[in-house]
User: Fold these one by one.
Assistant:
Number 1:
Amino acid sequence: MRLELHKVKIEDVQWGDATEVENNVLYINREEITDMLLEDDRFESVEVDLARPGERVRIVPVKDVIEPRCKIEGEGDVFPGFIGDVEGNVGRGKTLVLSGAAVVTCGKIVGFQEGIIDMSGPGADYTPFSKTNNVVLVFTPKEGIERHDYEAACRVAGLKVAHFLAVNAKGTSPDEVSLYELGEITKRPKELEGLPRVAYLYMLQSQGLLHDTYVYGVDAKRILPTLIHPNEVFDGAIVSGNCVSACDKNSTYVHQNNPVIEALYKRHGRDIDFVGCIITNENVTLEDKKRSSSYAVKLAKMLGVDGLIITEEGFGNPDTDLIMNCRKAERAGIKTVLITDEYAGRDGASQSLADAAPEANAVVSAGNANPTVQLPPMEKLIGFSESANVIAGGFSGSLKEDGSIEVELQAITGATNELGFTCFSAETR
Amino acid sequence: MIAYGESLGGEEDRGQMDRGGIWRMSFFYEVVTNNPRLKHIAGCVYLEGCPLDVLAMLRDKVHDGYRLISHPLTGNIPPEKRLYLTVLLASFTSDDDFVDQESLNLIERALEIYERADRNHIDLDPSSIEDMQFLDEQLMMPVFYQYGILSNREVH
């Protein structure tokens, strides 16, 4: 399967008479976007705003971040099951990417489970989405709308706009083309012989209602672990639909740009043979946990892999799935490396995960979510400011009279992302 | 307490599990919660208290032969902020001495996490309390449907 990502670099976002891209600037016709979104009668109102890197702007409460993409060649369209049809498979042909732009959705679905993005100041250093040119959508639901429906409406609205922005840029010549190609598992070329076979075990948040991830439009809670081609992920086959802590939420943007897949592709043919991805879920019942971890490891054995990279989403109960996957794989003779973040207390001295095993002897940390950070007041606030008091990582009184906020890192969108899509790094000398 | 035995058709519901023998026995489901939204559920043990109290009761129940069906740490809610906890258990009536070690380990681990959390500053506004109750309920809904505790509603 071969996919070309045609990346148009977006260096600025501006209001315009038409929604289009010209000279690397994304222009937004505000009315056009608002009208399109208000077709959904679950919304009382929709505000469209812009936030650029370096501006004194705070966005809160952030639900999801999505990268504008659309297909320009190949089967279907991005976000299959939501935008694209599910006939055929994405992951082939050419996809247009507005690189450097993002759609940010804001809503008070479950207040305390959403996040903060600061476009400048100390908070900006912790979120990758302070560096993107953001089109922010703030949704107020009609009275009486159930929260599931509100969540579903916000989710689809974000995908719609992301797709629409890319479609309106069709014909723009790309600044960069990245090629991703991975052949059939059973027909490996000679140059891969002797290289260790590595697959990616990709755990998807699926703890329950409002804690869901979608694969081709299917709720991941209802899947058995299965195979997915990495290129399908780049085309939006995996969509975030959850309200978990902001710092380690895998936003749709992060799925679309999964850095683990990028890294495995880079090393494919060099020092590893990247076989593909196995997706699995993180359900709350122990029976589901046992079934999914056994099944996922069985798939890995069937693929004959020597190594597995395992990532999780969220903390607490998903740590149990992470450790089950690790232990079962190691016992089946497959080496594992885990990627997670930590909740090790403000001083970093507490145990980081809710579960552990001696087999988990290679773990990459994306950072500790508990240290606090002071966010100074901003000139402009997009969204609903009172959320800062109730957000996970914030506390009553977090929001000061002058507009500054004291929060734990877990309140900042993407701060300790467990796919490693973060601004943190560490070095040993 | 809801009994699931042969006479209630529980065997058909759980037919796919009916291999190892253990499921053939009559057993009971029990929900332990401190969430007032879930008081009404049949077979629910409601207690007024914090998640630590729920965990303590779960531990007692596991020592009494119950087994955890759902994980004691649902929903990515930091322990220093969490107000409500709901867990589904099953009891096997055939073996009085049965203690499920896996359930016990999970509860002990959850207790450790809650005990070390600084819960002195829980001071949430009423809308957050409502959100917490709602979220706790929502997280458990698919489990209740999956195990037939609730029925006649499509799981979202």
Note: Chain A touches chain B through 40 residues (CB under 8 Å).
Number 2:
Amino acid sequence: MATESASMGGDPQQLLSRSRELTARVRSAQRVTWVPLAVLAAATFGAVPAYRFSHSVRTCRTWVHPHGQSGTICLVYNSAAFVYWPIALVAAYVTIAALYLHRSRARGVGTRVRPYVIAGIAIAVLLTGTSLWVDRHPPTDPHDILGLHIAALQAGSIFRLTGPASAIGLALLVLAWAERSRALLVFAFGYMAIVLIPIDFGWVIARPSRWSFLPHFVIDGSVLLLGAIAFALAQRAARQSSA
Amino acid sequence: MTGHPANGLDDVVHQRVRLGILTIAHEARQVEFGFLRANLELTAGNLSQHLTVLESAGLITIEKGYAGKRARTWITLTKAGRLALREEITQLKLLINQIESADRPRNGAVAPD
């Protein structure tokens, strides 16, 4: 019986390799990676008018270190930040979920987007909450952030880690896992590096200009947009070659 | 019954097309009839027969509906289907290991004169 069954199924090596090939085909049909990247690029570019037509809030405190050092520590943020980003990110993830569902159903397969959308919304809410907490409890020492003793050079990265661009990057890591895409994993790490270091390509508009936020959003948004274009072209080519 | 991996193979699952259906349904979460037909290169009648076997064994569920005016048939793997697929893949890997380990000493042996 087992012999009959084995001959009916064929060579185990061939069966396994065919299973792997079919798995790869399904994954290729499911991937619409350019959609979240394009939608999140739009959300990032959308922040430009939101920030431009709101005002900058600056709260400063004097700090004195027990060893005698002293200075002033200032927290600067845009009044639109706490309103625009939660709304924009939740709207973006709802749009992404709808587009993924539409595309995957049109191709005849289910979708893996649910963990990404849930993680994206959860991270956005969590980081907005953290930013609000920092706003209500501003640091009294430049080395003391969120109760952590941190070197001054790392402090900026910690603040950026609680920002919207970082929320986008962290959620992209979840999408890379959900889609089992190494290319997206590499892209998400690259994006996180650009956001956290941050890499500004030498384009800086100093305060008190009302456009000081512009390089940051244009660079982050452009990286997402270029990523969307690259993934769209690569996935289209992959589908055409497998068809 | 011996411990040979071939004895652990399920006749329903250990079949090239049906294993393909289960693999696709597992990876896709839910898959449409047309996608299966195109990727497994089968006629509609042939695919339907295999789907009936899998549905009777409780390994998949078949749901019919409409997308606009187009009739659509969606196939979803059941929990039993997931377990059966996992078991089949495990048995296939064991079988491959057994064949390879049986080949090794024979290849290394000195041929008799």
Note: Chain A touches chain B at residues 1-6, 8-10, 12-13, 15-16, 18-19, 22-23, 25-27, 29-30, 105, 107-112 (CB under 8 Å).
